[in-house]
Amino acid sequence: MTKGIIFKGIGGFYYVKANGVLFECKARGKFKNQNITPLVGDYVLIDVYDSQANLATIEEVCERKNELLRPNVANVEQAIIVFAIKDPMPNLTLLDKMIVLAEHAGLEIIICFNKGDLDETFDFELYQKRFERTGYHLIKTCAHTGEGIDALKGLLKNKISVFSGPSGVGKSSLLNAIENGLSLTVGELSQKIKRGKHTTRHSELLQLSNGGIVVDTPGFTSLSMHEVEPEALSQFFPDFSSFKSNCRFDNCLHLNEPNCGVKEALVSGMLSKERYDVYVYLYKEMTENERKNKKW
Ligand code: GDP
Ligand code: ZN
Fold first, then answer.
1. What one-character DSSP code corresponds to residue 113?
2. Closest by alpha carbon to 181, among 162, 215, 156?
3. Are strands 213-215 and 221-222 parallel, antiparallel or unpaired?
4. Lowest mean pLDDT segment, chosen from 21-30, 218-227, 229-238, 266-275
5. What does the alpha-carbon distance between residue 60 and residue 4 come to, in Å, rounded to a whole number?
6. How far is CA 213 from the centre of its chain?
7. Ligand 1 in contact with 167 (CB < 6 A)?
8. In CA terms, which of 109, 251, 265, 285 is 20 to 30 Å from 195?
9. Which ligand is nearest to the CA of 119?
10. What's the 12 CA to ligand 2 centre distance in angstroms?
11. From the CB of residue 295, how many other CB atoms can be counted at a distance below 10 Å?
12. Is the CB of 114 under 6 A from ligand 1?
């Protein structure tokens, strides 16, 4: 048996990439009885019964590390959150919300500021400082001049990644810039991205030359986002974590409690004020929505 990844599913067929070859597969009937629906991104074991025509059968679906709801893809490891430095101006509240959603989905996070050519005065260091203790990669790119494209491609290496961010920030352009060196799939890629804009369709995986894999549709809503409780919000702020052990109360919300390690870190300048303010803002918004029974 051969191990591979489901790259796409169409009309009852699964296309599984294994050892660099795409196999057309049917899934074993037993999965239906077991209530398993193979998903794009699933690692599977296939039995190749026609190596000339690349036909195989999916025999096993390996355990999923995670599952995104939109796009409905399994085993995504990292999110590239793209914003433009200008046109459109970055909406920082939206950026922070997206970060929390990606954290909640259990994804590694890369924050990408694109359109680096549009504003020479853009203060990238300010953002680096803001996210200093989060462990997130920050990167400045320009899909037109090629700035940061190699670095971004390097970050995609050997991982399954999903791009996200508002429309018009340059996600498709970045993918095209990354794929330019890949004469084999560049046409395929741009075609797929165009189609993706106009129709709702199943997501597919795109293979990069360096072993990276990218989901062809943006987004990362995880299955249980609506279950996030405001009390759990600080879990999704990794920069708070090392200070929490200094909180007097285990269930400290880092708001008005005495002897709060997070607030002490804020006062001593160890923690970014912007990040703390975002936490308070989102906490309030979530509790408001909870009262109104609305989720975000
Ligand atoms: P998407 O909606 O996020 O996929 O954004 P697109 O890739 O479709 O890009 C939206 C617009 O921004 C297009 O007109 C692109 O040519 C432009 N664009 C993308 N990247 C850059 C960049 O780095 N610099 C500039 N100046 N424009 C860019
Ligand atoms: Zn606290």
1. E
2. 156
3. unpaired
4. 218-227
5. 10
6. 12
7. yes
8. 109
9. 1
10. 51
11. 11
12. yes
> Cβ neighbours of residue 69 under 8 Å, at least 6 residues apart?
221, 222, 223, 225
| 62 DSSP 8-state letter | P
Mark 138-173 as b/e (b = at least 16 C-beta within 10 Å): bbbbbbeeebbbeebbebbeeebbbbbbbeebbbbb
Q: What is the Cα–Cα distance from 3 to 45, expressed in whole angstroms?
A: 5
- End-to-end Cα separation, the chain, in angstroms: 44
Answer for the pair 277, 262: CB distance below 8 angstroms, yes or no.
no
Cβ-contact 156, 210 below 8 angstroms:
yes
Closest to 219 in 3D by CA, of 141, 161, 155: 161
**Tokens 């990408």 appear where?**
112
Inform me whether the pLDDT recorded for 183 exceeds 60: no
Say if ligand 1 is within 6 A of residue 211 CB.
no
Q: Is residue 42 a contact partner of residue 9, using CB atoms and an 8 Å limit?
A: no
Average pLDDT of the chain is 89
Query: Taken in order 143, 149, 153, 156, is the CA torsion positive or negative?
Result: negative
What's the pTM value of the predicted model, to 2 decimals?
A: 0.89
Per-residue pLDDT tens over the stretch 17-39: 999 999 999 999 999 999 999 99
Burial of 11 (0-12, 13-18, 19+ CB in 10 A): exposed
Cis peptide before 88 (omega within 30 of 0): yes
Alpha helices of the chain — where are they, by DSSP H?
30-33, 92-104, 124-130, 149-156, 171-179, 186-198, 241-244, 261-267, 273-291
Is the CB of 171 inside a 6 Å radius of any atom of ligand 1? yes
**Residues 62-85, buried b or exposed e (16+ Cβ, 10 A)?**
eeeeebbeebbbbbbbbbbbbbbb
